Amino acid sequence: MKRELSALRLHAFRHGWRFFCVAVAMAMTCPVHAQTAAPQTESSVTVYGGYRGGGSLTDANTGATVNLRDDGSYAITVDIGLDRQTQVQLFYSHQQTALTSDDLFSPTVNNFELDIDYYHVGGTYFFEQVGAGGYVVGGIGATHARPDRGDLDSETLLSGNIGVGYMLPLGKRVGLRFEARGYATLINNDSSLFCGSNVGCVAAVKGDAMYQGEALAGLSIR
Asked: Exposure pattern of 72-82 as b/e (b: 16+ CB <10 Å)?
């Protein structure tokens, strides 16, 4: 009887040990499968070259149209992955341009050199998955307009952007991005811009907003 009980205990111990080993193996394997199945995120840095145009205002004194000169631009983005389709984006774009006026009697406005920078925080949504195919993008932040003259103040205004793009993968970590963005900068109606304590203001404009468009092509590294 004792031998039979001992045999039964040994048999039960062996089966219990096997069950325990299988359970441990499953417990160790499950997180791996769960991690594999979990949505992957991707972050990237992209450097762009581009061309920006638009930006018409109305001179409050003469009624003449004041334009920003169309010119080349460059931009950089940092995209932080949230899930397989969505990223948070930090966006910066720079352009060297000039104010030009249709009014021949506004020499201070004609060919007035300045830099226009956009600093935006927003997001990117890919239609399929991050890193390939079409996407929409947008952000909100500030427009910083800096005159080429040191005796005049810069202007910082609220702005936003929205755009569409396409990313072409060149490998696991590199891709080309093509984008078109539109910008809107809010302007207080009848505002004086680029003023200095000793020289007055360069321009007095009226209107609610200034609009620009930009075409960009960039190299993205993930």
From this structure: ebbbebebebb
Q: Give which of 220, 182, 215 is closest to 72, Cα–Cα.
A: 215
Cα–Cα distance for residue pair 64/204, rounded to 1 Å: 11
Tokens at residue 54, please? 């638009």
CA 153/CA 185 separation, integer angstroms: 18
Burial of 201 (0-12, 13-18, 19+ CB in 10 A): middle
Q: Quick check: helix, strand or coil at residue 59?
A: strand
Sign of CA dihedral 17, 19, 20, 24: positive
Sign of CA pseudo-dihedral 11, 13, 14, 19: positive
Nearest CA to 185 out of 154, 213, 216 is that of: 213
Encoded tokens for 57: 């205002």
3-state secondary structure of 32: helix
Beta bridge mates, 54: 212
Residue 36: which H helix or E strand, with range? helix 2-37
**Tokens 């078109």 sit at which residue?**
180
Cα separation, 68 vs 37, whole angstroms: 50
Per-residue pLDDT tens for 21-62?
Answer: 444 444 444 444 444 444 467 899 999 999 999 998 887 777
pLDDT, one tens digit per residue, over 118-127 is 999 999 999 9
